[in-house]
Design a protein that fits this description.
2 domains, nine-stranded mixed beta barrel, alpha+beta
């Protein structure tokens, strides 16, 4: 009779541990929550170290399962960008011109295009949260779509900026 009791005890212990394991696994699979207000850390951001550095940059993010809204305030100007969140494109290596957002594992990517001085620039921003959610690293890729014929000019530029969540 004792072997049966041991087996039942093992099954009960395993069943008791299973919901915790499932919860931990589910929590790891959940996407990061970038919603909130973020201030760029100028000491750790490439944008602040340019020849003409940017001033304070504040980013306010609203995030739902289907939409990403990014409000950026810099140099007294505000910009609002809204991206539908959907499935990743089949070729995530190419910077696209369609305004959209998607998940690449724990990384939230938004991309699109804009015109600067009559030239189309494609952009991609990849957002990664620190494990505690207090910091966000944004890696940006800018790609000149067409129009620059200057020999030796860069057509793809990458940068990395660090933001700290404000409370």
């Amino acid at each position: 009779m004792r072997p049966v009791i041991k087996r039942v005890a093992v099954v009960v212990l395993a069943a008791g541990a299973f919901p915790s394991a499932l919860t931990a696994q589910t929590m790891l699979a959940l996407p990061a929550n970038f919603a909130g207000v973020w201030k760029m850390d100028n000491a750790r951001s490439e944008a602040a170290m340019q020849d003409q550095p940017v001033g304070d940059v504040i980013v306010s993010i609203t995030q739902t399962g289907l939409m990403l809204k990014v409000e950026t305030s810099r140099d007294g100007k505000n910009e609002i960008a809204i991206y539908p969140i959907g499935a990743p494109p089949s070729d995530t290596g190419e910077v696209g011109g369609t305004r959209r957002a998607f998940w690449e594992g724990p990384i939230l990517v938004d991309e699109g295009s804009l015109d600067i001085n009559g030239k189309t620039i494609g952009f991609r921003e990849s957002r990664t949260a620190s494990p505690d959610g207090a910091e966000m690293v944004v890696e940006t890729t800018l790609k000149v779509q067409h129009g620059y014929e200057v020999k030796g000019a860069l057509t793809i530029v990458n940068g990395k900026n660090t933001f700290v969540r404000t409370r």
